[in-house]
Amino acid sequence: MKYFVVIGLGTFGQNTAIELENLGHQVLVIDQDEKRVTAIKDLATESIIADATDKKVLSEFVNKNVDAVILNMGDNLEANALTTLNLISIGVKRIIIKAKNDAFGKILTAIGATDIIYSEREGAKRLAQKLHTPNLIEHIPLSPEYEIVELAVPDKFIGKTLDELKIRNKYKVVVIAVKDILSNEFHLIPGADFEFCQNSAMIIIGKTFDIDRLSF
Amino acid sequence: MKYFVVIGLGTFGQNTAIELENLGHQVLVIDQDEKRVTAIKDLATESIIADATDKKVLSEFVNKNVDAVILNMGDNLEANALTTLNLISIGVKRIIIKAKNDAFGKILTAIGATDIIYSEREGAKRLAQKLHTPNLIEHIPLSPEYEIVELAVPDKFIGKTLDELKIRNKYKVVVIAVKDILSNEFHLIPGADFEFCQNSAMIIIGKTFDIDRLSF
Ligand SMILES: Nc1ncnc2c1ncn2[C@@H]1O[C@H](COP(=O)(O)OP(=O)(O)OP(=O)(O)O)[C@@H](O)[C@H]1O
Ligand SMILES: Nc1ncnc2c1ncn2[C@@H]1O[C@H](COP(=O)(O)OP(=O)(O)OP(=O)(O)O)[C@@H](O)[C@H]1O
């Protein structure tokens, strides 16, 4: 079980606190807005109404042994920066900040933030990928060159086996699992005699170059 | 090549427009804020300064054959709702709205939005998972029961083969790929005699139940 601090209860911060509690960890939430703290206090281990830029107050509640501090304090660079400096002087080892743009992220990294999260940008990239690849259900980049995608099984595969379709030879990608969309059941690493059925999706791993060229 | 419209140039909208253009599609961006439109106009196929709640103006620039319209208009429910109703009366088939909370999403779905995206919530869940599983590099849920994770290879695996480690038997998960962290090179579906090296990560597929119980 770990101990985290969330400073700033923007949507991201609220959800991070709730999810960490759901996963069995303890979370202290801090925000200067009484309404937001009250709304979440039954879900968090501890909750405090305070101005995080006030070093004296912050050091009363945050000690250097916390596993990480997550900031979601909005667009005010000064508030984010001062809070980061306070946390560094307290001795916090991991400071994760949700930022909207590179300028913000660069500056906060320069003063000591360890992780910057650009969730709108990441969400936008995921959406753009899904709009780009119509039968794409999920798209997971693994490295600049490789990715995993989940695609609806094309109609012309139905009733054919992996061996007949020669997917690895023809398309250079590997089918690592097939999912029945209705039951959510999985068939991991299907063999050569595996036959595709209706209403299923295939999880494929391969080079981005080859996946982009898939056309069934 | 597809044609998309992005209404509202919040961070999410801006990045969606840019990413879709990068993927080779055409994007029309609409926002009532002149500064935001000017900042992006060289990157978008077309850009217009307009109030999207004005049906007459909107129908001049958006026709029903667009592949999808993406809304990122901020927290004003009325603006999002009126724009959605305008798009529906124009005949747009796919309306994707970035929303911050369920109430917003429910209401907009009730009046006809086809997709709601909660990017802060999704980002928060991903962060919480990474904080929960320390050697977790990536976590991809495939269904309520199955997921793919990318984990750093534990020290005690180094120098041993897949066969010696009996990973599928012991841990009930399948190693579908091993990535060299320094070179980003991949070894897909490693065989029984594959030997783990330093500085690598393994991509594993299995039931969430079993992955949560992994302890090396
Ligand atoms: N100095 C401060 N001390 C404590 N809390 C602060 C301070 N400054 C800002 N906050 C809090 O940070 C929160 C920022 O929320 P806001 O909704 O502006 O974030 P956001 O950037 O829109 O995030 P999201 O996109 O995740 O919703 C507010 O609840 C605000 O009260
Ligand atoms: N009626 C309208 N017509 C056109 N544009 C609008 C209208 N109402 C709002 N907008 C635009 O929508 C945009 C919303 O941006 P804002 O930064 O508030 O979004 P956000 O919810 O914080 O998104 P993100 O978290 O992705 O940054 C603004 O650029 C604003 O000008």
Polypeptide structure, described:
Two copies of one chain form a homodimer. Chain A has 216 residues and is an alpha/beta fold. Chain A has two domains: 3-117, NAD(P)-binding Rossmann-like Domain (Rossmann fold), CATH 3.40.50; 122-212, 2-Layer Sandwich (Alpha-Beta Plaits), CATH 3.30.70.1450. Helices cover 36% and strands 26% of the residues of chain A. Chain A is built from nine helices and eleven strands. The first copy, chain A, has helices at residues 11-22, 34-40, 55-61, 77-90, 102-110, 119-132, 162-165, 167-171, 208-212, and strands at residues 3-7, 26-31, 46-49, 68-71, 95-98, 115-117, 136-141, 146-152, 174-180, 186-188, 200-207. In chain A, the strands form two sheets. In chain A, strands 3-2-1-4-5-6 form a six-stranded parallel beta sheet, sandwiched between helices. In chain A, strands 7-8-11-9-10 form a five-stranded antiparallel beta sheet. Chain A is elongated. The model of chain A has no long low-confidence stretch (mean pLDDT 94). Chains A and B meet through helix 1, helix 6, strand 8, strand 9 and strand 11 of A and helix 1, helix 6, strand 8, strand 9 and strand 11 of B. The structure holds adenosine-5'-triphosphate (ATP) (2 copies). One adenosine-5'-triphosphate (ATP) is lined by residues 8-12, 31-33, 36, 51-53, 72-75, 79 of chain A.
